[in-house]
Amino acid sequence: MNTMRAEDPNYGSIPQRPAGPPFAAAYRPTPPGAPQTTAPFLSSGPVVGSEASGFRPTQTLNSNIPYMPPPPSSYGPPAAVPSQHFPTPQFSSTVQPPPLRPSAPGQPVLTSPFKPPGVHLRSSPLSLHQPQIPSVPMGSPPQSVSHLPSGMSGPQPFPSTFPGYPSRPSAVLTHPPPVQPAPFVTHQGGYGPPPPGTSAHLLSHQRGYVHPPPVAQMQQQGSGPPMGTLQGLTEDFSSLSLASIPGSLDPGLDYKVLPRPLDGDVEPNSLAEMYPMNCHSRYLCLTTSAIPNSSSLVSKWHLPLGAVVCPLAEAPDGEEVPVLNFSATGIVRCRRCRTYVNPYVTFTDGGRKWRCNICSLLNDVPGDYFAHLDAGGRRVDLNERPELTKGSVEFIAPAEYMVRAPMPPLYFFLIDVSISAIRSGMLEVVAQTIKSCLDRLPGFPRTQIGFITFDSSIHFYNMKSSLMQPQMMVVSDLDDIFVPLPDDLLVNLSESRSVVDAFVDSLPSMFQDNVNVESAFGPALKAAFMVMHKLGGKLLIFQNTLPSLGVGRLRLRGDDLRAYGTDKEQALRMPEDPFYKQMAADCTKYQIAVNVYAFSDKYTDIASLGTLAKYTGGQVYYYPSFQSSIHQEKLRHELARDLTRETAWESVLRIRCGKGVKFTSYHGNFMLRSTDLLALPAVDCDKAYAMQLGLEEALLTAQTVYFQVALLYTSSSGERRIRVHTAAAPIVTDLGEMYRRADTGAIISLLSRLAIEKTLSYKLEEARNSVQQRIVKALREYRNLYAVQHRLGGRMIYPESLKLLPLYGLALCKSIPLRGGYADAQLDERCAAGYTMMSLPVKNLLKLLYPSLVRVDEYLLKASSQADELDTSRLPVTAQSLDSRGLYIYDDGLHFVIWFGKMLPPDVAMNLLGEDFATDLSKVNLCERDSELSRKLMKMVKKFREIDPSYYQLCHLVRQGEQPREGFFLLQNLVEDQVGGMNGYVDWILQIHRQVQQNA
What we know:
The chain contains 19 helices and 34 strands. By secondary structure, it is of the alpha+beta class. The chain starts with 5 loop residues before the first strand and ends with a helix.
């Protein structure tokens, strides 16, 4: 396909519809380079796989029972049982350990005890020494690891006791001799230690915790100012003290001092201090705001180098993106690289010339845009020119940026009406929601609408305004699809409103007696494309049954357990039939975005159906085992938001960058039109895209690199617009500076997309290993920066900017797309979660990976006068945070879990649940009842939902000890606990640290 010359009104002739794309290719291509490829997610370090899988027992327990799920792994530290304690001499390696190999995530690593190191915090380095360290609960010791592979563990009944619950028996404690503080490391420059401080501020008290160990002694060192070169490095890092207790496998690491995002989601690093005219980081966020100047620095970085772009993100409070109309002069752009005029261009020659900040070309200033320069070389009209002072602006595009009239907002509904869709109540909820949103669809009075329903045949509907009632036309020949009345199947909503209302009202009753079990989805999809292709628009698919008839029919393939753990496993996560990818490509070409709503309680091959959303800039919504009595509010909210949120139509996106740097690969839901042009039939504020960056030259000589994101689109009101975000970042020669300016949120966002894409070609274990190895290599490289000048001992050191990277890395490995093996998540659920995570903005993704856990019973019991004093401080996501006397809300942005402790006062539960408080909570819906506590709880839930309206968090009520419900909804999702054969947070930190030390 030829490169689109987007944003270039003078390029060539473009064939008229339907032969080609509907709008002018509005970008000029960048200079020819290597074709864009998606590099496999491979680490360059030691190979980690089945040969290096950490501790694996040699016993052959249950070896004669293939594919039998193992006993449940402990969710968090188990109660002490005799089988968990073997004599220490069994591990002779503790005397003289062999060389360690990196282990797979989830497998404990056995090493010799650590030397007691110190704790260092950025700016105020501290050393933490513990005179006597009690055994901290951290999950099963290595010898109690399940004797079956971790991939074989599935949802099982859960143990009745968990750490933090009062009923838990205390674990056996080993009392070691006192650990002597390590000698003090003296800084260069003769800084000496001031008097010892205390660690009270580190051991922050959290409600529901067990009491922390005795407060450790601390010694504090002075610290010189951070230097920019390796020769002048001081201890400008944070660190954790990791010391083993002699004769014990339990390390002396207090889990409470581990870094966590309890003060709120990580905000992206802002370059506003250095570059105040940059766009806000919610639009464009770099994985490090210090760009390496050489290929050698890139190779030492190890983490993904790139950016995350959310071009239509909602503006920060109190800010708006200014809209500019350059109708008189035309939009001012560089004539060579097509960069838009922005705050970083410079004016010379008395204001008659301007120099492009991307390619350095000197351009003429159009006569109508001319202004004199003041003594400082700045334009005298600078304060009247938002494009020269703000990092984000929107230009109204003139007529030459399009080859046809801007398309109207078009919504087309393709609805499954087979028996399962009727019985689940899906059809009724969808019809009611569509009707409730008709007055709020954007683009009035231009909005167009249309419908097709299908089971074993395809039903078209004529709704032209001259009719009193809609006319149904049925096509049953699935091999030769044609469109009856092609001009009357799409209607203007304002003109045909009464007919559309009549149709939506009658839709549920029209098929209420349908007993058809078949699904001709493929032919129906082709029919919808034939109706829509002249205009484009948004196609909303409601799918309840595995496609079984005609082109695109699919087969049951997710239940073949023999494929798991083999090289065929990843094929299950790939589309089975190329029909869907081809249809997605055709839809993108004709500006059709596809959103898939999947409902079935059986396998429906989301891997194949989701392809339609992936390549058209769409979205996958998954409602497994949908029942309207339970899920209707979630479906109503998410469908209404999809229909009514502001949408950018027939869009293309390009990100330009300065000389010597280029974007090499792109990740998210879109079609790559050329090497760097993303085709996006529809874009909204809930979509983000990630891209990797590389250097074109071995050495960069400039001091700053500039980035500019340009989104050319049609607004719902019919204007052609260009939204432009511009940012600058310094080019550095110091690797330490790159790490210190790293952005954990952007890194994890890009890393998650790479890992999910890796699962399409490799086993889940290899994708998890790749995440772990990148983190290990990055921390090792950072540690090596300080190894020459400082005796680091056993400390785990890291830059303050990356203190949460190990935690989010662990959470990513435990997320649904990557976790465990075949039994840890259903195939459809795994694929749907992958499609969702590929498009989430940074903040939403971090919330999904490390959810909020908030205790609310104390707030509910406060007097009404204090009702507004809601304490939403987050707790560590571990069972140790749960107090049996409390009530907690777990919120990952997609779901709520409300956990009732078994010692919660009965009157509290009765006030919240009424007479249902003692029944099976799976049958209870949370709703407002006639009590003050209930009203306060519902107000709180509403407030949490309003914080992020992109999804509706459905409430799951869980009672402590109620299995398997508690385990399924909450315990297996407690990121910090040892779950499903995967490490807890403490074990993970220790494992990462051991691997970092191996070659440091």
